[in-house]
Amino acid sequence: METERTPPKSFLLLKFGGNVYTKDGKEGAFEFDDACADALIAEFESRSRDLVIDFEHATLSGREAPAAGWIDRLEKDAEGLRAHVKYWTDKAEEYLSRGEYRYFSPTIILGGDKRAAALHSVALTNHPALHGVDALVANDTAPAPDPGGEKQNLSDMPDRSDMSDEKRKEPTMTETEKALCKLLGEETLALTDAADTEIARRLAALADELPTLREKAAKCDELQAAEVEKRKLELFDRGVKRGAFCNAQKTTLLKLSLADLEEHEKNTPDNAALPPPLPRPEEERTDTPEALTDEEKKIAAKMGLTDAQFAEIKKQFCAKEENE
User: Fold this and answer.
1) Secondary structure in 3-state letters for 65-78
2) Angle between the 307-323 and 294-302 helix axes, to the nearest 10 degrees?
3) Is the pLDDT of residue 15 over 50?
4) What pLDDT band is residue 150 in, cutting at 50, 70 and 90?
5) Measured between alpha carbons, how far is 116 from 113 in angstroms, rounded to an integer?
6) Is the pLDDT reported for residue 149 higher than 50?
7) If pLDDT is split at 50, 70 and 90, which confidence band does 290 have?
8) C-alpha dihedral sign at 199, 204, 206, 207
9) Number of domains in the chain
10) DSSP state of 104
């Protein structure tokens, strides 16, 4: 028996409970409950305009997107959220009555909790993203015979020249939309103008927080830098106490990174910054002191001193020894 294909005056848009969808080859899910339905109805009514039903999500492309119909009311029933169709266009009615389009696909915006937050549009499609979507018209059957018994002339068939393969593709998320999702902590089936107000509000809130976040980050950097300098001074003082460093090296050593200074302090032996003991005055020679020994030159290099600077320290040390 032939089943009549009549474009519906209303249809179940979203079912209560868990809803599964496939987008960009990946499966996802979101919850839809009474509170979600109320939120979508309130958002729809706040716009004070009908919601478009398009062909294959063409509205998302930014190109010419003729309507297939218009939704003028959303309402709840025991099953979920129902859409009331104000009217279908002639082309949509013809597609539906022929069974050439049978399904629909809502463009939904999901919040960070993976719950439906806004509705942008609804599309006629034969490849809906949502799983378990009820057909808008009856199951596939052969077209009803022409009352006059004549075959349908191909020239009378609807013009599909504007329904290219590109337009029939499910909308994909742009890199900008992906970045916004990451920034706002939201996963969406599509980011569209229906979400503009909410997205703008969230971005404005982030912008308001940004100066405070930058100030906190700068403060953290200051505290971290102060802690590093404190640790460097501790290492230097420890090196001075055991004779590994001397005050003449302070500026040079503190310019090292913390890791390098830790390594240098650990590997510098005790008393490396002090010249070797000199003979007692009675054993001293009266002639001019000879040039630095190879060992003294190595010590001078470790201390970051020139031979002349080391010789001067050595001279002062000798004078101190004489006075004691």
Assistant:
1) CCEEEEEEEEEECC
2) 100
3) yes
4) very low
5) 9
6) no
7) low
8) positive
9) 1
10) E
- How do residues 226-260 score in pLDDT, each as one tens digit? 999 999 999 999 989 888 898 888 899 999 999 99
Q: What are phi and psi of 272, to 5 degrees?
A: -65, -25
- Residue 61's domain spans which residues? 10-171
List, as own/partner pairs, every contact residues 146-152 make where C-beta atoms lie below 8 angstroms and the sequence separation is at least 24, other chains included.
none
State which amino acid sits at residue 60: L
| Residue 226 falls inside a structural domain | no
Under 8 Å between Cβ of 101 and 141: no
CA–CA dist 229, 227 (Å, integer): 5
Nearest to 293 by CA among 273, 322, 314: 314
| Residue 223, in any domain of the structure | no
Phi, psi of 123 (to 5 degrees): -120, 145
CB distance 109 to 117 below 8 Å: yes
Provide the token pair at 236: 């230097």
CA–chain centroid gap for 214, Å, is 19
Tens-place pLDDT, residues 171-184: 455 666 667 666 66
Considering the domain boundaries, does residue 84 fall inside one?
yes
The Cα–Cα gap between 182 and 10 comes to 36
Looking up tokens 């107000």 gives 197
pLDDT of residue 99 exceeding 80: yes
The answer to whether residue 20 sits within a structural domain is yes
For 120, the token pair is: 């942008």
